Amino acid sequence: MDKSIFLLYKAMVRPHLEYANSVSCLFKKWDIENIEKVQKKGTKLIISLKKLPYLERLRQLKLPTLK
Asked: Mean pLDDT, to the nearest integer, of 47-66?
C-alpha cells in the first residue's frame, strides 16, 4: 500500500508541484510555504513514514525539498 501511494504521489502530484514551484513568484515566502505544505501532506500519506519529521521522510523517499 505504501509503495503504491508513493508511486501515485511521484507520478501525479510531484510534477504539478515542481511546475508550480518554477512558475510561481518564489520571492514571496507565502508561495513557497504553501507549495511545500502540499508535499508535507503527501509524504504523510505513507503510513510507515507518517511519524517521522518532514526532512527525514524526504530523505527516506529520496525526494528533494521544493525550496
From this structure: 89
pTM of the model: 0.66
DSSP line for 1-67: -HHHHHHHIIIIIHHHHHHHHHHS-TTSHHHHHHHHHHHHHHHHTSGGGTTS-HHHHHHHHT-----
Task: Determine which helix (DSSP H) or strand (DSSP E) holds 26, and give its type and residue range.
Answer: none
Whole-angstrom distance, CA of residue 21 vs CA of residue 31: 8
The residue whose grid cell reads 520571492 is 27
List of residues 6+ apart from 58 with CB closer than 8 A: 43, 64, 65
Q: Chain-centre distance of CA 67, in angstroms? A: 11
Q: pLDDT class for 35, splitting at 50, 70, 90? A: confident
